[in-house]
Specification:
The complex is a heterodimer of chains A (304) and B (352). Chain A has a single domain, classed as Orthogonal Bundle (MetI-like fold), CATH 1.10.3720.10. In chain A, 74% of the residues lie in helices and 0% in strands. Chain A contains twelve helices and no strands. Chain A is flat. The C terminus of chain A is likely disordered. Chain B is mainly α. In chain B, helix 6 packs across helix 10, helix 7 crosses helix 10 and helix 8 crosses helix 10. The radius of gyration of chain B is 25 Å and the shape is globular. Classes of the chains: A mainly alpha (304), B mainly alpha (352). The interface between A and B is large, with 45 and 53 residues.
């Protein structure tokens, strides 16, 4: 008890004793203000749960997600041994849902790595270099921004071939331009500040300035944007899966599961409904979390 | 950009030349963006793992036939020449033949585009007439139950997969209740009766004064249109709310209230009047979003529009059709974007 008390006091101190101390203290303060936002906490809780489910899938799933049992096909929810029912091949829907969470996290994780990093690179280089490089890079960004995103992703998947990795690539290719815009805007304001001139006078090269002094300051606005975009990424991935261009059967990807269930929607509604609810829950969680994070990390854009 | 700074330096130019400069600048922007768009589609067409020659001559063609077709398609030329030829063809409205339908792609698009336009337009109208008032009320009664409802409605709209909501809608309103028509634009019974004038069945049947067909078309379009309208509404109500909040906290609103104006006049005549320009630009963006977002909706509702055309062509590896459709949707998207940008510049003096 007293240990946690002293830890709290240490984190809330007004006079940090080291750099790390100050940083941890700042994070703790942000956490405290984040914690008061009930909806954002709800979003966070759902996502933590999702990660746990994905990790513990083999333990939690009552059955093998690929095991077919044709005598037991299209069982309604509440059937014996199948809480959420079975699909057209008699596979347990709950187990498929649980394993599907891994695919969702995999896609979201990869896109959340690739798109912002690409955007960060393009944006900071463009903003710091200026001149022709800036003009050309921003033109390219504008062209990608002008493209209808889903149609572009469709065309890319068509070119690369259907599959999860290609869906990830296609979504990333359509998702990076806004990050480049944000990173460039941040770079432009940071570039002309005094401390950058001071570092430059000390002899720091452009590479060092960009990686050590500009990138860290771009991160927080990028994180907010990524979290808010996550829901869109999940929906795009599910859409590609639904069209048969993302994860391929028998993979238990949620969008593909809806597509399978679509044929039976009028008589066996649960096959398509259940995975849809899962997609909705997760993207709602990301939206809630994103709103909360924006209020904490980026108060100037806050709505209320 | 260069022109703007030149005039900014104080060289007085007649308003006509300024306007001409602006128009020229916009045209250059459109041209550059479109060229980039074409480059991307060309690139995609080239990396596509489908041999365009085989799809023309078939699998069993002899070497000579294959080579002749290879040269006829211009594939022996350098890439830059091929790209150049592609651009010239597209500018002339030639996207090649669709392998699936057998018609020129441009004809297919001309036939299918009105269906998409009809759907997206109706969706946007629903979005505007429900979303904007909702946003205004949410801003005025900030924190009240109606604000909370508007927030939840928008949040659900942002988080719900459109194709799933469409399926559920079909299940409930078509399958269980039977209130609306099913997939497609018309019941088969009514198809091909009305001579196409605009290609939009609601307008065509109204022109022909065939109200039976009009009602049938309405029963088919209402569900997908409401679906798209819901997504438009979610976005527009949020944007309207934040625009309105900004205005309502401005000093002129306080002044108007102090003067004793009614709340209605303050909100609609003063604050709302000031967000009109912003709103129009947002509506244009949402309209463009619906034109492209209808891809999944069209698939669910078997709506014969450009989105389902692109997708079905894609699945049967009909690249000419995919590229043509993508370029057209992209062009409309770019034009709407630029249009909203222009509106902003023309009507909002602060943007200058």
């Amino acid at each position: 008890m007293s240990d946690t008390q002293s830890l709290r006091a240490w984190l809330l101190t007004e006079t940090p004793t080291s750099r790390r101390h100050a940083k941890l203290s700042a994070i703790y303060h942000a956490w405290l203000s984040f914690r008061t936002n009930t909806m954002a906490m709800l979003g966070l809780a759902i996502l933590v749960l999702l990660v746990i489910i994905a990790i513990a899938a083999p333990i939690l799933a009552p059955a093998d997600p690929f095991a077919q049992e044709l005598s037991n096909r299209l069982q309604p929810p509440g059937a014996e041994n199948h809480i959420l029912g079975t699909d057209s091949l008699g596979r347990d829907l709950l187990s498929r849902l649980i394993y599907g969470s891994r695919i969702t996290l995999y896609i979201v994780g990869l896109v959340a790595l690739i798109a912002p990093i690409t955007g960060l690179l393009v944006g900071t280089v463009s903003g710091y270099a200026g001149g022709w490089a800036d003009l050309i890079l921003m033109r390219i960004t504008d062209i990608f921004l002008a493209f209808p995103r889903l149609v572009l992703a469709l065309a890319f998947v068509a070119a690369l071939g259907a599959g999860i990795e290609n869906a990830v690539l296609a979504i990333s290719l359509t998702a990076w331009p806004p990050y480049a815009r944000i990173a460039r805007a941040e770079t432009l304001t940071i570039r002309s500040s005094d401390y950058i001139s001071a570092i430059r006078l000390q002899g720091a090269g452009p590479l060092r300035i960009i990686t050590k002094h500009i990138w860290p300051l771009c991160i927080s606005s990028l994180i907010v944007r990524v979290t808010l975009d996550m829901a869109g990424i999940i929906l795009a991935a599910a859409g590609l899966g639904f069209l048969g261009l993302g994860a391929q059967p028998p993979s238990p990807e949620w969008g593909a599961m809806i597509s399978e269930g679509r044929r039976f929607i009028l008589d066996h509604w649960w096959v398509a409904t259940v995975p849809g609810l899962a997609i909705f829950t997760v993207s709602l969680a990301f939206n809630l979390l994103g709103d909360g994070l924006r209020d904490v990390l980026d108060p100037k854009d806050g709505e209320t | 950009m260069a022109m703007a700074t030149e005039t900014g330096k104080g060289r007085r130019e007649s308003p006509f030349i300024q306007l001409a400069n602006k128009v020229l600048g916009t045209l250059v922007t459109i041209a550059v963006t479109m060229l980039g768009l074409l480059f991307v589609t060309f690139f995609i067409g080239r990396v596509m793992p489908i041999d365009p020659v085989l799809s023309v001559v078939g699998e069993r063609a002899t070497k000579e036939v294959y080579d002749a077709a290879y040269i006829k398609l211009g594939l022996d030329k350098p890439l830059i020449i091929q790209f150049f030829k592609y651009v010239i063809d597209v500018v002339q409205g030639d996207f090649g033949q669709s392998l699936r339908t057998g018609f020129p792609v441009s004809d297919d698009i001309k036939r299918l585009f009105p269906a998409t336009l009809e759907l997206a337009t109706l969706g946007t109208l629903i979005g505007v007439f429900v979303g904007v008032p909702l946003g205004v009320i949410a801003a005025v009664k900030r924190g009240s139950w109606i604000d909370q409802v508007a927030r939840v409605v928008a949040l659900i709209g942002y988080s719900m997969p459109v194709f799933w909501l469409g399926l559920i809608g079909l299940l409930i309103f078509y399958g269980n209740l039977g209130w609306v028509g099913g997939p497609g634009r018309l019941d088969i019974f009514y198809e091909d009766i009305i001579p196409p004038v605009t290609g939009m069945i609601l307008i065509d049947s109204a022109l022909a004064q065939d109200w039976g067909i009009f009602r049938n078309a309405l029963s088919h379009i209402i569900l997908p249109a409401c679906l798209l309208g819901y997504y438009s509404l979610a976005y527009l109500s949020r944007m309207t709310r934040s625009f309105m909040l900004e205005q309502l906290s401005a000093e002129y609103v306080t002044t108007a209230r102090v003067k004793g104006l009614s709340e209605w006049a303050v909100v609609w005549k003063h604050a709302f009047a000031n967000i009109k320009v912003q709103l129009i630009t947002v509506v244009a963006l949402s309209y463009a979003g619906l034109l492209e977002g209808s891809v999944l909706t069209e698939i669910i509702f078997a709506w014969p529009g450009i989105g389902s055309y692109i997708t079905t062509s894609l699945l049967s590896a009909d690249m000419n059709a995919v590229m043509g459709g993508t370029v057209v949707v992209g062009l409309v998207f770019v034009l709407l974007n630029i249009f909203s940008d222009l509106l902003y510049k023309v009507f909002d003096p602060r943007a200058k």
